[in-house]
Specification:
Blueprint (H helix, E strand, L loop, with lengths): L10 H15 L8 H8 L3 H14 L2 E4 L3 E4 L7 E9 L6 H18 L6 E9 L6 H10 L2 E7 L6 H15 L4 E4 L9 E6 L1 H13 L5 E4 L6 H16 L14 H10 L6 E4 L2 H13 L9 E6 L2 H4 L7 E4 L2 H15 L10 E5 L1 E3 L16
Helix pairs in contact: 1-3, 2-3, 4-12, 7-8, 9-10
Length: 373
């Protein structure tokens, strides 16, 4: 098994991370003396001293000769958790970020207590290129940020993906980080994301039970873990039911190409799983052009984060709504755990169940007119 970047950290960096979390948890208090810290962490004095020098440069501790080591108080007794949205040509999740932020703010209000107000803010990081780590973290801490939640991580490919992973790994050495939306197998970081697998599996099984056999999945070949999981879920269903399926041009992302390919099919699929609303709308419009009724003649499933995005498809399609506010709540709770001396706990990956809005025709009381162009 490949060694994670966290495991490959130098010893003094690991010690720095442990002491940093202790500083956040005991802001304004005196830390144990050097000898005691050395015994507690089972490292020599030189390693402790080097870690403390780094923390002093970050403004987290003050080393006063002949008096002791003091963790500096956080600004006005307050803490800020920042949602950093990675925006690139492959991802633009600003609408989703708004919903995530609502959940984060809710969680912060519950965690706040007299003398310690926890707040949530948002910022956008356009990538690539990636900023210099020290400057990036310095700007975060200058705003009173004690930890960050990253949205939009994992959409890049090739060299850019490697740079992104390296950037996050280095940032996580200096400030607590939680990923949302895309777990990463080699970064031992807490992650939380919406999980639609149960609903997707139930939708496919229900369609199969009704005698439908022509299934299609319209997605992309990207390496994003969430996309891979959904694609694998569909592939496993097809294999278990001895149905033929393979990647072909039906998965093209371009709307015009997808519409043209759908138009060229001799037999239109009976069931389509589309990974986003835009692709689902293309399928719905082409089905209508062929005179098919939705949802009577075509069972269509898509994924959405915002109800207003899915509204044009309702009630003609089934939609799995990802619970973004609850993802934001859990992200804050996980991040708070990283700043309260839980130094040795394993990284956590949490899946927040999605909500299912069904458009299966046998659940519709009255026949529906075809959607208008």
């Amino acid at each position: 098994m490949a060694e994670s970047k966290t495991e490959r950290l130098p010893l003094y960096k690991k010690v720095t991370n442990q002491l940093r979390e202790q500083c956040f948890a005991s802001a304004g208090e005196m830390l144990p003396p050097l000898r005691q810290l050395s015994q507690m962490l089972d490292v020599n004095h030189a390693t402790i001293s080097r870690a403390l020098r780094d923390l002093e440069q970050e403004g987290l501790v003050e080393i006063v000769p002949r008096k002791g080591i003091f963790s500096l108080p956080q600004s006005s007794g307050n803490a800020n958790i920042e949602l950093v949205v990675f925006v690139s040509e492959r991802s633009n999740l600003l609408d989703v970020a708004l919903r995530m932020s609502q959940g984060m703010q809710k969680a912060c209000r519950k965690l706040s207590r007299p003398g310690m107000k926890i707040s949530a803010s948002r910022s956008v990081l356009s990538v690539p290129p990636f900023p210099e780590v020290e400057r990036f973290v310095g700007e975060l801490k200058s705003r009173g940020t004690t930890g960050i939640v990253c949205l939009g991580f994992g959409f890049l490919e090739g060299e850019s993906a490697t740079q992104e992973e390296e950037f996050i790994a280095q940032v996580a050495q200096k400030i607590p980080v939680v990923l949302i939306g895309s777990p990463h197998p080699t970064l031992k970081l807490d992650c939380v994301y919406g999980d639609p697998h149960v609903q997707m599996q139930e939708f496919l099984e229900e369609c199969y039970a009704r005698g439908l056999r022509r299934f299609e999945y319209i997605g992309d070949r990207g390496d994003n873990l969430l996309q891979r999981e959904r694609r694998e879920c569909f592939s496993q269903f097809m294999q278990e039911n001895d149905l033929t399926w393979e990647w072909n041009d039906l998965k093209k992302q371009d709307t015009i190409q997808l519409a043209a390919h759908l138009n060229s099919l001799p037999d239109f699929p009976e069931v389509v799983v589309a990974t986003n609303v835009r692709r689902a709308l293309t399928v719905a419009l082409e089905a209508q052009r062929r005179g098919l009724r939705l949802p009577e003649d075509l069972q269509l499933l898509c994924f959405a984060s915002l109800l207003e995005h899915a509204q044009p498809l309702l009630p003609y399609a089934s939609v799995i709504m990802l619970d973004e506010p609850e993802v934001g709540v859990r992200a804050v709770q996980l991040l708070q755990g990283k700043t309260t001396l839980e130094n040795n706990r394993e990284s956590v990956v949490e899946r927040v169940p999605a909500h299912f809005i069904s458009g299966l025709s046998h659940r519709i009381k009255e026949p529906l007119e075809p959607i208008s162009a």
